[in-house]
Amino acid sequence: MRVKTVENMRWSDEELISHIRAGNRNAFEQLYRDHSGGIYCNLRKLTRDDDLAKELLQDVFIKVWEKKAVLRSDKPFRFYLFGMARNTLTDFYRKVKRDKQMLQNLQLLASEITHQPIESIVTGAEEELLLQAVDSLPPQRKKVFVLCKLEGKSYEEVSKLLGISTSTIGDHIVKGIKSIKNQLLSPDRVLLVLGISMVISFVEYVWQKIF
């Protein structure tokens, strides 16, 4: 019977899972060698982007290691990996959509406060100044403002999340807008263009490439 040493070890999937649960990194490395190629090809086909597929592949195996204590061996492990890859890709899509929506909400808010068209907000990149103003709000007010104005949640949803009344939320929003408006329209503040322009360009690029 051949003895499995560090140099020649080859485990079945069931053995791999058992060893990985115990924290065996050699088993984890074999798992990566055995399955990363197939997972990468699948992700590459779905995303049509080499770099994105590689990034998602790393995320998949990081999750495997983080969840090693609950790995199951009642079905072929490659099915489990492909399912995890699909979930990782879905999570990525959701994040891109959420980030795009937050940018749109930010642009609308900047337009509302400055009374400028959204198009000029985008080209002028006043979102960066707005983000700084939001960040300067007191912690609770900032939390309410981000949830309502940037994430688009209703007063009722935020009330349940934070355990405060809708009237308190309304008060935070009114005072938050007043504070932000004072900062945003202050004559001694300079609009910061480069940072937000790069963010917007990147999100739009990813959005167009994927969808």
Automatic annotation (TrEMBL):
It comes from the Bacteria. Coiled coil: none annotated. The chain crosses the membrane at residues 190-207. One of its GO terms (molecular function) is DNA binding. GO terms for biological process: DNA-templated transcription initiation. InterPro entries: RNA_pol_sigma-70-like (IPR039425), RNA_pol_sigma-70_dom (IPR014284), RNA_pol_sigma70_r2 (IPR007627), RNA_pol_sigma70_r4_t2 (IPR013249), RNA_pol_sigma_r2 (IPR013325), RNA_pol_sigma_r3/r4-like (IPR013324), WH-like_DNA-bd_sf (IPR036388). Residues 31-98 form the RNA polymerase sigma-70 region domain. Pfam families: Sigma70_r2, Sigma70_r4_2. The keyword Transcription regulation applies. Residues 128-178 form the RNA polymerase sigma factor 70 region 4 type domain. Keywords: Membrane, Sigma factor, Transcription, Transcription regulation, Transmembrane, Transmembrane helix. NCBIfam families: sigma70-ECF. Belongs to the sigma-70 factor family. ECF subfamily. This is RNA polymerase sigma-70 factor (ECF subfamily). The lineage of its organism: Bacteria, Pseudomonadati, Bacteroidota, Sphingobacteriia, Sphingobacteriales.
